[in-house]
Amino acid sequence: MVLNSLDKMIQLQRNTSNIRNICILAHVDHGKTTLADCLISSNGIISSRLAGKLRYMDSREDEQIRGITMKSSAISLHYEKDDQEYLINLIDSPGHVDFSSEVSTAVRICDGCIIVVDAVEGVCPQTQAVLRQAWLENIRPVLVINKIDRLIVELKFTPQEAYSHLKNILEQINALTGALFTSKVLEEWAKRETESQESSDSVPGEQVYDWSAGLEHTDDSHLYFSPDQGNVIFTSAIDGWGFGIEHFAKLYSQKLGIKTDVLLKTLWGDYYLNTKSKKIMKVDQTKGKKPLFVQLVLENIWSLYDAVLKKDKEKIDKIVSSLGLKIGAREARHSDPKVQINAICSQWLPISNSVLDMVCQKLPSPLDISAERVERLLCTGTRTFDSLPPETQELKSAFMKCGSEDTAPVIIFVSKMFAVDAKTLPRNKPRPLTSEEIAQRREFARRRHAEKLAAAQGQMPLEPALVGNASEICPKKEETKNDEQLTSPVESINLKPVMEEAEDKDSFIAFARVFSGVVRRGQKIFVLGPKYDPAEFLQRVPLGFSAPSDDLPSVPHLACCTLENLYLLMGRELEDLQEVPPGNVLGIGGLQEFVLKSATLCTSPSCPPFIPLNFEATPIVRVAIEPKHPSEMPQLVKGMKLLNQADPCVQVLIQETGEHVLVTAGEIHLQRCLDDLKERFAKIQISVSEPIIPFRETITKPPKVDMVNEEIGKQQKIAVIHQTKEDQSKLPEGIQVDADGLITITTPNKLATLSVRALPLPEEVTQILEENSDLIRSMEQLTSLSEGENTQMIHKKTQAKIQEFKQKLEQNLQGRKWRNVVDQIWSFGPRKCGPNILVNGCIDFKSSVWQCLESKCIKEASKYRDFDNSIISGFQLATLSGPMCEEPLMGVCFVLEKWDLSKFLGQGSTEKAQEELARDEAVSDQSKPLGSPSEKEQVQDDCLETLEKKSKHKGETLLADCYGPFSGQLIATMKEACRYALQVKPQRLMAAMYTCDIMATAEVLGRVYAVLSKREGRVLQEEMKEGTDMFIIKAVLPVAESFGFADEIRKRTSGLASPQLVFSHWEMISSDPFWVPTTEEEYLHFGEKADSENQARKYMNSVRKRKGLYVEEKIVEHAEKQRTLGKNK
Ligand SMILES: Nc1nc2c(ncn2[C@@H]2O[C@H](COP(=O)(O)OP(=O)(O)OP(=O)(O)O)[C@@H](O)[C@H]2O)c(=O)[nH]1
Ligand SMILES: [Mg+2]
Predict the structure, then answer these.
(1) Is the model's pLDDT at 763 over the cut of 60?
(2) Is 113 helix (H, G, I), strand (E, B) or coil?
(3) Are 802 and 779 in contact (CB under 8 A)?
(4) Average pLDDT value for residue range 876-895
């Protein structure tokens, strides 16, 4: 096929109804990039022989070396079918979990997706994840079951077995879709229910509600994958073939004389052909009849593979001629059967036709965007679509129309920024020469040659300017003065310096899609930050103001920029464009200063920013980075900034300690980020710390058994109490602890006393808090702005959510200990949204996080009101870093049981009284004439007394002042109180856990288990994949033990098993990091010094060491000897 010209692509971009924006999604290694290669080769961009080998979309070197895709990238393809021409904007995405954020960026700008499933491995964890992502973004999927050749060659299935296996895969994937659909219907159902309740609140009796939306009544048949629906095809990307049943239905309808429609319905499923009556009947399994799919489709393919693999020349020739194919002599004689298969099959059942056919028929065009999707994109945060300003709601029609007229607002979403080498930008690329230029150059060379010859013969002196390479490319004016014509066409004169300058500069291109309007080069446009609120703009700016201009009134999170360059994304290449019509995927240059990772661009300020991308992976692996040479720090800082911009999911932080920290989604992601930093963005040598493993600190209930599993009896209990008493004696003076662990502490100026107790929260509650951290954050925002006028209207839905959250907490916090606790929750921490709570147990002061639920915020006039912020801050600080190793706390409830400020308040009143007293005295001095000396003495005595009193008060005030402001003291004291309250309880560390899915064959299963148990992993589930000899193992593994895990598994199993690690949850490490043996059995079992390794202590100390904290390590010399001595005594 001929390569399409840029003009053709530009022309195709204008026909919106024939555009398909699609991405390829799958589990790692299921063949996305190989499939993309096949589709690309159909456009002549790469040769069909190289399809599958080149992996054209993997343009990075490390992608090629590792054989996995790391970045999603786009390419535009042309496809023609039944005199319709289509433009397909294809995005290849990575399948590895570490890069799942790249999937999110791709899905957002597409309308449909191809889900690829490996026919052998079937549905894998990432298949589920990508299906969910597609679902959440409301894009339509079609299915490609790939690697069918493996069923023939590797698993040696018969066609019948293969059919059952394929049926099974389809059932699995449909079960997933079904689950997603059910949850969505139920959610909508619930939503409508609340809405109907709301509307019935306002207009009683006018309730129009369609109860038929229940599950039973909703038609979901179009959602499922089924070959007869035309949304499933079977392929072998590596061998270049693929088909949908439509192809065979058409073929056999002629041969068998059965209508195509009938065949379409029966070719997949348990139907068979009664050859005598030429009728299609339901399969009766007992009679051993073959389904049509086996008989008419699979058996043909199987026999072709069979002939080629057995090198049965005669049979091959027969098949080829019966199919009417022409195989090139080179392929026909090739010794490698794969080449032969590819040559035959790619002609017989070309994969690109079947895939692109399905894409064009079954996937929607940009014009088909659903109202639901538009509303979802526009409703950021806690807003509902109805609560948006009317101007914003009007934009919905622009989205739906996707119009290109001048009045249509331009709306663009940038889903990521990617760096390209400036050399590859079209403006820096040498322009291909036109045929005229080539002719002129030839003429020029010919003349020079003639001159050279003449010079050699001594007829003419050699012109120095004509010697040397540079003059060949860059002839200067003087050199060509004898032929003026030559100078003008050769335009590469200035090319070299430009390229050199651009060489080490990376250029950032925005990966974007136009949702409405025509984007033009040089156009001015608003850049809307994620927190931009159109309502705010509309309030501030006079009506009718819309076009972005320089004299923009300053509105937060809104900027204005010019679109400098527009590009057509062609895989590894970029092509310059002047304008881009709506519905297209494009690259935009020149946004580096305006967009960090993603953004919404619009010519209308009433557009809200799109909802944030929904990332599946949590960045968890952190490392600290330093330049090898300290003087290169500025380069590192700059490089990390660029890296942050270029990767959707990496986080770059500078910790309080001054360390530069990189947080990544996993080991491979980390490696890629480091490579990028070293070779691309910072270009310096760096040293990388060991991965920083996050922990959480918590407390637990006192144990009932000791470390050797003996029940803790009375005596031991006494021993334990003694030990805690000993511990308590370590507490500084002035802090009291009761037997229950209630800490009472006084501020340094002795004017306020706080009593705090720490309690472990039930696990379920911690989990609820974690799940709802976003909600908690918005509650916090609501409370702070509860006086705003429109809040009530906006937050109805959120309020319902908050109510639900509260109820859940109440359900899980039952029993005497937790009575009324939920109502008294005062704050969450750390950062006001974490999984710890502060409970206000003081009777006379009411203030809780649930205030936002009340329609009017009651500002309570309390004497303590002014200081509650200090207490909350103290709590926040305490939960941010715990006493064990300064890691954040988790699952702890602090109860402030008493709070005595009376002295402080009292002091305030004495000061006032004193002033009054002083004034009184002055008055009395004047009014009272001095009488007898005795009287005088009396007065003097009085004066002395008051003076003394005065100075005493003054001293106290001074004393108080030297401790700094009272609120500060309160913060510090609260923080200390929380820390001590923790320390008198049994403390535990919590470790981050990965879930790990490993697929392994039976032979290597033992080795996989060995590696898992060595690294403290725990197997949750093991099952056999139906129809194969593969086992699927689900396990959990501490993040702390996971480094090098994937490599070790791969090495030990010779590459047969490869794990996928995804962050799952936090888990308490049951051992006590401070434990020392107390009972006799424990002494016997662990030795006096407890020198067998304590995992929790090891972790704690390693964190403390890293943070430069004091580590209490017992250095024991001659341990054995000391013990014997001790025992003999
Ligand atoms: N037997 C067989 N192998 C295939 C087929 N398609 C792809 N492969 C092989 O599967 C491996 C992975 O293919 P890729 O195309 O890189 O897979 P991918 O889905 O892009 O992988 P990631 O991008 O890393 O998620 C390669 O070794 C391919 O040669 C197929 O149809 N049959
Ligand atoms: Mg790939």
Answers:
(1) yes
(2) strand
(3) yes
(4) 91
pLDDT for residue 900: 80
Ligand 1 centroid vs 147 CA: distance in angstroms? Answer: 8
Q: How far apart are CA 341 and CA 236, in angstroms?
A: 11
How much is the average pLDDT of 755-774? 90
Supply angle C-alpha 482, 485, 486, rounded to 5.
80
pLDDT at 203: 43
Query: Could you say which DSSP state residue 461 is in?
Result: P
Q: Is 146 in the pocket of ligand 1 (CB under 6 A)?
A: yes
For the chain, the maximum distance between any two Cα atoms, rounded to a whole number of angstroms, is 146
Most informative mutation of 28, 33, 90 for ligand 1 (most atoms within 8 A of CB): 33
- What is the C-alpha to C-alpha distance for residues 354 and 770, in angstroms, rounded to an integer? 46
Tell whether ligand 1 has an atom less than 6 A from the beta carbon of residue 366.
no
**CA 32 to ligand 2 center in whole angstroms:** 5
Ligand 1 within 6 A of CB of 27: no
User: How many angstroms does the Cα of residue 123 sit away from the middle of ligand 2?
Assistant: 17
Q: Please spell the DSSP secondary structure of 961-972, one letter per residue.
A: HTT--HHHHHHH
Q: At what angle do helices 796-812 and 159-202 cross, to 10 degrees?
A: 110
What is the whole-number distance in angstroms between the Cα of residue 121 and the centre of ligand 2?
16
803 Cβ contact partners less than 8 Å away, ≥ 6 residues apart: 853
Q: Which residue would you say has higher pLDDT here, 218 or 624?
A: 624
Ligand 2 mean position to 804 CA, how many Å? Answer: 42
Grouping H, G, I as helix, E, B as strand and the rest as coil, residue 967 is helix
Give the environment of ion ligand 2: residues with CB less than 5 A: 32-33, 69
pLDDT higher at 1030 or 210: 1030
pLDDT greater than 80 at residue 798: no
CB 33 less than 6 A from any atom of ligand 1: yes
Strands 621-627 and 660-664: antiparallel
Global model pTM greater than 0.85: no
Distance between CA atoms of 961 and 957, rounded to whole angstroms? 6
464 Cβ contact partners less than 8 Å away, ≥ 6 residues apart:
none
Average pLDDT value for residue range 94-122? 93
For ligand 1, whether the C-beta of 1060 sits within 6 Å is no
Given the CA of residue 69, which atom of ligand 1 is nearest to it?
23
Any ligand 1 atom below 6 A from CB of 147: yes
* Structure-model confidence comparison of residues 382 and 160, the more confident one: 160
Q: What integer is the mean pLDDT of 296-321?
A: 90
Q: Ligand 1: which residue has its CA nearest to atom 24?
A: 68
> What percent of the chain is predicted at pLDDT more than 90?
30
How far, in Å, is the centroid of ligand 1 from the Cα of 238? 8
For ligand 2, the distance from its centroid to the CA atom of residue 835, given in whole angstroms, is 38
Task: List C-alpha distances in Å: 914 to 921, 948, 959, 965.
Answer: 10, 12, 17, 22
Across 902-914, average pLDDT: 58
> Which H or E run includes 112?
strand 112-118
Residue 71 Cβ contacting ligand 1 at under 6 Å: no
Ligand 2 centroid to residue 992 C-alpha, Å: 29
Q: For ligand 1, is residue 32 a contact (CB within 6 Å)?
A: yes
Q: Look at residue 232 in the predicted model and tell me its pLDDT.
A: 95
H or E segment and range at residue 57? none
* Residue 956 reports pLDDT greater than 80: no
What residue spans of 541-586 are helical by DSSP H?
none
Tokens encoding 152: 């023939």
Residue 120 CB less than 6 A away from ligand 1? no
The one-letter amino acid code at 201 reads D
Is the beta carbon of 96 within 6 A of some atom in ligand 1?
yes
Q: Are 497 and 528 in contact (CB under 8 A)?
A: no
pLDDT at 1118: 52
Closest CA to 100 of 71, 124, 123: 71
Q: How confident is the model at residue 141 (pLDDT cuts 50, 70, 90)?
A: very high
With a 6 Å cutoff on the Cβ, whether 242 touches ligand 1 is no
